Amino acid sequence: MSEPILTARGICKDYRDGDDVCRVLHEMDLTVQRGEFVAVMGPSGCGKTTLLNVVGLLTPATEAARLELDDVNCLQLSDARRTALRRDRIGFVFQRFNLLSTISAAENVRLAMQLKRVNPDGQVNTVLERVGLGKVAHRKPGHLSIGEQQRAAIARAVACQPALLLADEPTGNLDSANAESVLRLFRDLHDEYGLTIVMITHSTECAKAADRVLHMRDGRFVDD
Predict the structure, then answer these.
(1) How many domains does one find in the chain?
(2) For position 9, which CATH number holds?
(3) Partners of 222 in the β-ladder
(4) b/e string for 82-108 if b means 16 or more Cβ within 10 A?
């Protein structure tokens, strides 16, 4: 039986607008097993990305009873240690790719590995070939197709072998053919390497790639 890689309990998140306080997440509980592929579905504005940002240590919860990642109690970490844990143990894939436009796909991957203190020698080309970009690794993002840019972003995220991959609407800017290709790549990486993935999506078709689908509405998980 696998063990949890992510455990969150009682997660609440508020945003303040002047004197008004808006609660976006309402005492949410989430457990993800090591090696699991989970999709979180819900309409725009339901809090999916906020939840991803909290469990990905990009933003702190307003209230939390428990938040553990890879056996580390994140609620007791200083800002510096949270940053280090996020850098070393989490990979991110975003809808907008977030590649550096002035350097090549290979250099984007190399830089990510250097920032995470992983030796990139011999590994950059390997990971780009694995995502189907070996022949265009020298190109800058502006000279890659939209689908190739997202593949480069995935290569950058997985090059350092993260404990957890968080993907926020990874097919949101892609046509159906490229979306299918990216989802197949996620599935292959999960099946081949046991990569743990939590993917945010509003698409039923995208969610079919996952092992388990959770549904959100108005800052809560709901039965569908």
Answers:
(1) 1
(2) 3.40.50.300
(3) 215
(4) beebbeebbbbbbbebebeeeebbbbb
Range of the domain at 207: 4-222
Cα angle 17, 45, 204 (rounded to 5 degrees) comes to: 170
Instruction: For the chain, give the DSSP string.
Output: ---EEEEEEEEEEEEEETTEEEEEEEEEEEEEETT-EEEEE--TTSSHHHHHHHHTTSS--SB-SEEEETTEEGGG--HHHHHHHHHHHEEEE-TT----TTS-HHHHHHHHHHHTT---TTTHHHHHHHTT-GGGTTS-GGGS-HHHHHHHHHHHHHTT--SEEEEESTTTTS-HHHHHHHHHHHHHHHHHH---EEEEES-HHHHTTSSEEEEEETTEEE--
As a dihedral over the C-alpha atoms of residue 16, residue 18, residue 20, residue 24, rounded to 10 degrees, the angle is -20
Per-residue pLDDT of the chain (224 residues; tens, 9 = 90+): 579 999 999 999 999 888 889 999 999 999 999 999 999 999 988 999 999 999 999 999 999 999 999 999 999 999 999 999 999 999 999 888 889 999 999 999 999 888 877 777 778 988 999 999 999 999 999 999 999 999 999 999 998 889 999 999 999 888 899 999 999 999 999 998 899 999 999 889 899 999 999 999 999 999 86
